[in-house]
Amino acid sequence: MTIRVGSIELIGLQEVYTEDTQALVELRGPGQAGGVFQDLGREPVTVVMSGILFGEESGAALEELRQAQQKARPLPFAAEVIAGAEFTDVMILDLRVRQLAGARGRYSFFLRVREHTEAPEPEDAGVAEVEAAIEADADAWSGGATDAASVLEDASSLAEATAANPALLDNLSETELAEVLGAATPGSSGDALGGVLVTLGERDPAALGAALTGVHKNGGLSALIDKVSAASAIVRARLARLDLASMLPIVMDMVKGAGIIADLKRVMSTAEALATELRDFDPDTIFGDIDREVEP
Asked: Would the pTM count as exceeding 0.85?
């Protein structure tokens, strides 16, 4: 017969029994014989054990049991011999030890333990953490909204405000981002504008692509690219890691340099030359010669 309490294996047990009781409350009515019993469920099971501890580890085992009793610390419990006792932790209620004469490290013990069940968590468990998180989110949103409003009033403060509170970018629509970026370009450095683009791209790549598309539609992309192309190598490297090509293909030139400006100028020159040729084109001159060639 073996029972384990904590890390102690009680192999010298001589007697084991359980005490099971039911919690019944008697409700008596005035002037009535007898009463009504209300069943409140079973009481925690009590296990009573007695036997002998022996061996070199018996002293350490007793000390562990004493410490658990003094500190009211639950201990793991395992016993296959107790039918119907389906519990895994116990509290020590009573511990009595007597050293036996004639043998070193030999003790007789009496141990009474009771089933231990963790108290259920209160209904509002975790509410404080959730409320704190909600409050923090509300504060962050409020701060971001306030800073976003300030940036809309003064676009030149965009870079400084973004560095202090990146959350303000979440409170600007795609249209507002495009307008603010375009308005902030003339008075901002390449590093400042590049820092804003990096922050926006790291937080929301889709928002960065939409904002740059809006700047392009507003006619301010060339000026923005000129500024960002002059940014430091560190800023340009951070921009390169954003994989701008997947957001807006023409923006990759921000990392490569100002080549897009030359490309745009070349396209415009070609378009102007083509427009001139089309304006001077006379169909009668060509088709008249063709008609004369095919006449019989």
From this structure: no
